[in-house]
Design goal:
Largest sheet: 5 strands, parallel
Radius of gyration: 18 Å
Structural class: alpha/beta
Order of helices and strands: EEEHEEHEEEHHEHEHEHEEEHHH
CATH topology: UDP-N-acetylmuramoyl-L-alanine:D-glutamate ligase
Distance between the termini: 30 Å
CATH class: Alpha Beta
Strand content: 15-25%
Number of helices: 10
CATH superfamily: Ribokinase
Number of strands: 14
Shape: globular
Length: 303
């Protein structure tokens, strides 16, 4: 089965600054290298899903500028369907400034044109949602648009994976309507409304059970199955750049969702681990053949 994955979200130009340390407040340091990559959580996840074998439609908004043209060309080269994406003259293409040091990163985002994905526009392409096998969302576009997509998808019984990044409180009704929520270890306690009285990660799993799949960096993944919290450790690899690892995880999770929770999490965890061995959020995203080879080699070398 080739799943039809619709990704609705952000597309950014990533300016990555490599340094040997993070600057302290008031400190000036010299960059080792400055690079330009295609990025944005939505676009990254679309590329990840496509390379792993999904039929991907990406819905986002580009600025009418050189970075926008660069990003459109990049996604078209991946054979991602951009038919229902937009170009606006009113804002610049979104830009992310990424400071990367020793495998870790700090990110500041200028949303730009990403704020132009509106509820009215989603209504105008509602039929695309109905034709999807699964929908993948993040929180780098207007939140009211994200909640609207969740409601529409629920009406049509289309599963939704919601990646709550950057973190925001998710309305109670949305928590019930999505199929999976994929926070990292920093976001998981920030997405639940205070009415729920959650104080630790275990409280969130008790509340949402199978809906929560938590990525935990070098420690792997936590998810809920058979009435208990399950853990999958991260694969041991040589880390080059962690930028976009979570996006690869989400793109892979959507691609393999139809194979069941445990298998989807296993493959997504492996894809994310493999992605950090290369520089760049999209350039590090593995193909399905690379993922299969990685798993074969890893299992062979570990007995």
């Amino acid at each position: 089965m080739i799943p039809k994955v619709t990704v609705i979200g952000s597309v950014n130009l990533d300016i990555t600054i490599q340094t040997n340390k993070f600057p302290n407040i008031g400190e000036t340091i010299i960059a080792d290298q400055v690079s330009r990559f295609a990025g944005g959580k939505g676009a990254n996840q679309a590329v990840a899903a496509k390379r792993l074998g999904a039929d991907v439609t990406f819905i986002g908004t580009f600025g009418d500028d050189e970075p926008g043209n660069f990003l459109i060309d990049t996604l078209k080269k991946e054979n991602i369907d951009l038919t229902f994406s937009q170009i606006t003259k009113y804002r610049n293409t979104g830009t992310a400034y990424i400071i990367s040091s020793n495998g870790d990163n700090l990110i500041i985002v200028d949303s730009g044109a990403n704020q132009y994905i509106t509820c009215d526009y989603i209504n105008s392409i509602e039929n695309i949602l109905q034709q999807s096998d699964i929908i993948l969302l993040q929180l780098e576009i207007p939140l009211n648009t994200v909640w609207h997509i969740c409601n529409l998808s629920y009406q049509y019984n289309i599963p939704v994976i919601l990646n709550p990044a950057p973190s925001a409180i998710i309305p109670k009704e949305i928590l019930q309507k999505v199929s999976a929520i994929t926070p990292n270890e920093h976001e998981i306690l920030e997405i639940i409304h205070s009415d729920y009285q959650v104080h630790c990660i275990e409280n969130v799993f008790d509340l949402l059970k199978e809906k929560i799949i938590m990525t935990n960096g070098q420690h792997g993944v936590l998810y809920y199955q058979n009435n208990t919290i399950q853990s999958q450790p991260a694969y041991q690899v040589n880390v080059s750049d962690t930028t976009g690892a979570g996006d690869v995880f989400n793109g892979a999770l959507a691609t393999f969702w139809h194979q069941g929770l445990e298998e989807a999490v296993t493959l997504a965890n492996a894809a994310a681990s493999l992605s950090v061995t290369k520089l760049g959020a999209q350039s590090g995203s593995p193909t399905y053949q690379e993922l299969k080879y990685f798993l074969h080699q890893y299992r062979y070398s570990n007995g």
